[in-house]
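Q: What structure does this chain adopt?
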Amino acid sequence: MSGNGGNGPPKRRASVRSQTQRIFIDDSDEADYPADYPPVYIIRPRATGSQYYQKRSAKANPYFFYNQVPVDEQVHESRAASSRPRRASQSTRPRSSEAKESRTPKSKPEVTEEDRIRHGIKAGYQTKNWDPTEKPILLLGSVFDANSLGKYIYDWTVSHFKAGTPMSEVAGDLWLLLIRHAGKMKRAEAGLPRIRSKSKRIMVQDFINRGQKHWASLTKLLKDCEEYMWIGAKENEETGAMEMSKNAGSELVKGLFGRDRRLERTERLMQKLRNWIMDFEADAEDVLR
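A:
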């Protein structure tokens, strides 16, 4: 590379090497380099992509926030759930159409003596809260189904802990888990005989067996919580029978959700029901369609 002979200011020649960078060659006589020193190459990459726009675009106004945060409720909930740890029983309650339909009031058939005999319900049990087309759940002297039991627990939880509290949210989650579990169990038992594939029939039967174990755990948990419902019970002077106090329902929910009582077992059961439902929807739903 030849110099400019000292005539005029030093010159800089540019040659395009690529679309992304230029090479500048300093051949000035005024440079403090030896005569035999090789020319200096200065490579300056061309700003592209995000760098280019960062340089040329105006700075964002830190006070302008309108419409910059997603307002979709589900996006907000998913981000909130991932940003802070929550107990297993405090996860977002499911919003499936199946659960919503089950929670809506519907007329139930009258309980007959045949229904009692078929399900092994002894005489004297109150059946006004039981739909005979559903599996019965016994609690002291009353018979419930999954929906009515969940509602009973939820109503008493709201009455005792107040609405909008963490425990009322837990009770609402339990209500929906009971509904969904019972509905899927009923569907599995009804659809099992129609499955032709042996491997798929074994899989659905395994879901039924696991579901029955969870139901037995629920029955055992309720049985253990009955002892708290007897607190405050009094003997009727005329009949000699024990009568429950008006706070029996409160004692039940305190037994289920009290940290010094059965809360840990209740949470474990809810997590088992939740996992069973997720596995059922992933593996057995398509088989039963």
